[in-house]
Amino acid sequence: MYDIAIIGAGPAGSTLARRLGSKHRVLLVDRRRMDLDPCQSPASKLCGGLLAPAAQRELARQGLGIPQAVIAGPQLFAVRTLDLSAELERLYQRFYVNVDREAFDRWLVSLVPHSVERCWGWSLSAIETDEEAPTLTFRTADGGRASVRARMVIGADGASSTVRRLVYPTETSPERYSAVQAVFDVGSADPFYGAIFDESLTDFYGWTIPKGGTVAVGAAFPVGAGVPARYDEFVGKLRASGFRFGRELHRGAAAISRPTRPSHLFVGRGRVLLAGEAAGFISPSSAEGISYALRSGADLAGALDAGPQGAASRYVSAAWPLALRVGVKAAKGGAIYGAATRRLVMRSGLGALPASGSHNPQVDLGWLR
Q: What is the pTM of this model?
């Protein structure tokens, strides 16, 4: 019998395990084979791998500094923003830390106390809840089955949370998007990150993130038919606009959430609670989720310190600032993704960096005319 079973070893789950592992009997489960080399694990996290200032602040609050092995180059200081439909382009200064996302997650797991039991390559298939201790059934890495009991179950398993789906199927979930990201070979990366808007393809956005001799090119699309074709069209438009991509090395897709109203946020109740994106904690304007995951994991750890009785209500109280942040970001997203407002801001040049020759190469949008 475990005190706490944590499903998902991303930033939320690993933070929770790190904070509680020396005080309770904890099981940490993830479908990734984190005992293997990342190249051998087919379920690596699809993520651009940029730590926003909010994530940096949360790491600092938790007393953590990123090791060199997690850092990915180059470290850039500008985001080129393009509105392809309106033929607008601006350069904005931003301060992200470029990391290898899989290495980042593995580093967080390495901080978890050795007393925490880990089961890699396990996938949750069923939960039987009762008042004392839920029973969880898993498909194991070797294709077998395993069942465990825990006094508390924590779903930290992302946008497609199996815990949320199995235990709370009637709760309103955030709108789901399909994020597609491919890695391309490049001779020399452009000295900026990219944020691209094109409402003919998606009401969200796309991105480019240089990583050494490669560049990650991604976009989020409403779930539905034709996502691969829309992604190919997106890449084609970027190539035609002057972005320098070589051959595609590999491609992946994953679900992401986009909470836009309070009912999309749900932290669970009783003995089954949710953290990170499984609870709806993610920015609806940028899809940045690492800061929310780190903070919600820490908030939940504080709520569980006193035991399972009343943990849910303590967690709700601790997490309300996160819920407020989601609401603020939803309002910001309404402005960013409202074409008229976005174009007004871009045309004004408010907050944009001035052009400076070769340091601000111009993308040719004339092909759109």
A: 0.92
